[in-house]
Amino acid sequence: MDTMIESLPQFAAYQPSLGALTIFCFAVLIQSFLAAPLAFAKGEQTPGMPLQGDHSLLSFRVLRTYQNSVESLPAFGFALLLAILVGVNASLVNWLAGIHVVFRLAYWAAYYSGIGKVTGGPRTLCYVVCLITNMVLVGACLFAIFA
Fold first, then answer.
1. Is residue 6 assigned to a domain?
2. How many whole angstroms separate alpha carbon 119 and alpha carbon 122?
3. What's 104's domain CATH number?
4. Angle formed by the axes of helices 90-113 and 122-146, to 10°?
5. Quick one: pLDDT band at residue 49, thresholds 50, 70, 90?
6. Which of 29, 39, 60, 81 stands 20 to 30 A from 11 (CA)?
7. Is residue 1 a part of any domain in this protein?
8. Which range of residues forms the domain containing residue 69?
9. Domain-embedded: residue 35
10. Looking at the 3D structure of the chain, how many domains does it have?
11. Is a pLDDT exceeding 90 seen at residue 4?
12. pLDDT (0 to 100) of residue 103
């Protein structure tokens, strides 16, 4: 049985983007797996309850990072898939997807490590870059659909 990329060769140019989306999905699964031992082992957080503490606690940062990834994955995933479906330039889509995932992983590392200021530091920069890549993807989709 052929894959969709083999059946529809015009999608082959987007394979790097699909790889980036797969890496992002895998990272979110890893974050989910790490949440229990890193966030709940010391008893600082209670499963199913609002977060306790602040950014000084690793348990707080772990759960906030995971929640942010869960919130951003659908926006990125749908924007990426829509860009592929409407035929946005493959090079643009691949670059944006790669940049997005690299900065998403950097966001994760910055937040877990607690480096920088709570606002305006490396984590904020990573978040903004990811937001911009999503906005450009959506803008390119709108242009492809209505131009």
1. no
2. 9
3. 1.20.120.550
4. 160
5. confident
6. 29
7. no
8. 11-146
9. yes
10. 1
11. no
12. 98
Residues 6+ apart with CB under 8 A from 131: none
pLDDT at 96: 98
pLDDT digits (tens, 9 = 90+) for 93-138: 999 999 999 999 999 999 999 888 888 899 999 999 999 999 999 9
- Please state the pTM of the whole predicted model: 0.92
pLDDT of residue 41: 85
Residues of 68-107 as b/e, b for ≥16 C-beta within 10 angstroms?
A: bbeebbeebeebbbbbbeeebebeebbbbbbbbbbbbebb
Distances (CA, A) of 80 to 59, 134, 142: 31, 8, 13
Q: CA-to-CA distance for 145 and 147, rounded, in angstroms? A: 6
Measured in degrees and rounded to the nearest 5, phi and psi for residue 3 equal -80, 170
Locate tokens 């890549």: which residue? 133
